[in-house]
Amino acid sequence: MQLAISGNQSLAMSGMLAGGFLDSRKDALVNAPLMREKTVPEFDLIRAKKLSPAEQNHIGYRHSLSERKAIALKQAAKWFHEAAKASDAVAQYNYGSLYYLGEGGKNKNYNEAFKWFNASADQGFANAFNMMGVMHLLGEGIEKDYQQAKTCFERAIELGLEASKNNLGILYENGYGVEQDYAKAQSLYEAAVKTGAPEALSNLGKMYGSATADELHYRKAFELFTNASEKKYPRAFSFLGVMYYNGEWVRRDFKKAEEHFRFAAEKNDIQGQLCLGLMLLNGSLGKINKAEGHKWLKKAAAQGDKLVEFAMTADLSPIVIDEFTCLGKKITAKGKFELYPTLQHSVEEDGSIHYCLLDRELGLHSWSPTRDGLIEAIKYDLDFIWSVFVHKPDDRLDTEALGLKKLLLANFSEES
Fold first, then answer.
1. Is 250 exposed, middle or buried (0-12, 13-18, 19+ CB in 10 A)?
2. Cβ atoms of 263 and 230 closer than 8 Å
3. In this predicted model, what pLDDT tens digit does every residue of 124-167 receive, in sequence order?
4. Residue 338, SS3 per DSSP
């Protein structure tokens, strides 16, 4: 089985650059011109009878850094709200972020989040424009509007948020409201990478690690994913897991793949949850664990992907190929030859789900709407591969083709 780096929208959107809480003193001096870093000691801020909006936001920001998140964010919310009411742009952005995330004692409320982001954007705060673009793109609390998303991302960039080029790149990569342009998307991702944004590192790596990539591109993808993973970005761990699973640039290692998928899954990354669930169900870890596999698939299903829903009832147990025929001759496995099926969205893009088997070492890419159909498709493809590579003299094969021939002969024998 070869896992795919998904281009499905519900998975791809995790590559969106969203926000985090910001400190007025460092991130919006234009809105607090008299403040400078460490101008006012912390105890003086807390004891002061009258605080400026920037100081109120700063206290909220300091609360947001606490490891005791549940309590600290409720305290942060109070300070953000006070500063936001006084029209501090950064505080308005931070207060909107609490509603967007459903934190700080707030229920997730996209309408409230958008209201505060909009108020912040009215004062020219770049991060607020970026988040409005995210919400327009995903249709969170408002109708999806790709043109508005584009406008917001471009405005954020104009105001100096270079990392928002990552989000604009997503529009061009997927053709959302613009003509699809991979070269422009790559250029935007590369620009965003310079800011250190892990989302951009991961998205650029995804482009290098596409299905048509060669070894040079796989190496670049692996480097980018590794850099993003060092920033603890969950989606990068998922993509590294894919590369370890498939043996792309690195030696195939199911255990390392599982470790990377598990890290991402525990951080609520849908691709990590999906891939870990599939591994637990298809036997690639040495045994099938339906209970845990279904647990992770249910978590992924809650984030909304038809492939995950289909996987809950699919038979993904290992496929054993005992024999197949080639040019009328029986080809028999020398031992137990197992392949690990997975699932993919139909290549017809009609919303249907197919069983599939991708094995880079064997050169297999077989798929079918049914498991039985997949088995027949695999045998058909093995028949073709055997006739092309095994029946051809060694001196007519390049190094890669010769390696494939040796792999086939190590696992199967042809009747005399």
1. middle
2. no
3. 999 999 999 999 998 998 999 999 999 999 999 999 999 899 99
4. strand
- CA 60 to chain centroid, in Å, comes to 30
Q: DSSP string spanning 101-126?
A: HT-TTPPP-HHHHHHHHHHHHHTT-H
Query: Do 114 and 142 touch, CB atoms closer than 8 A?
Result: yes
In a domain, 391, yes or no: yes
Phi, psi of 361 (to 5 degrees): -65, -40
C-alpha 327/C-alpha 329 separation (Å) is 6
Query: Which 3 state secondary structure label does DSSP give 260?
Result: helix
Domain residue limits at 342: 319-414
Q: How far is CA 252 from CA 227, 242, 257, in A?
A: 20, 10, 8
Q: How many domains does the chain have?
A: 1
Q: pTM (2 decimals)?
A: 0.73
| DSSP conformational letter for 318 | P
- CB-CB contact of 272 with 264 (8 Å): yes
The Cα–Cα gap between 286 and 279 comes to: 10
- pLDDT tens-place string over residues 245-280: 888 888 889 999 999 999 999 998 988 999 999 999
Percent of the chain having pLDDT more than 70?
A: 85
**Strand partners for 354:** 344
In a domain, 389, yes or no: yes
Give φ, ψ of 413 to 5 degrees. Answer: -130, 150
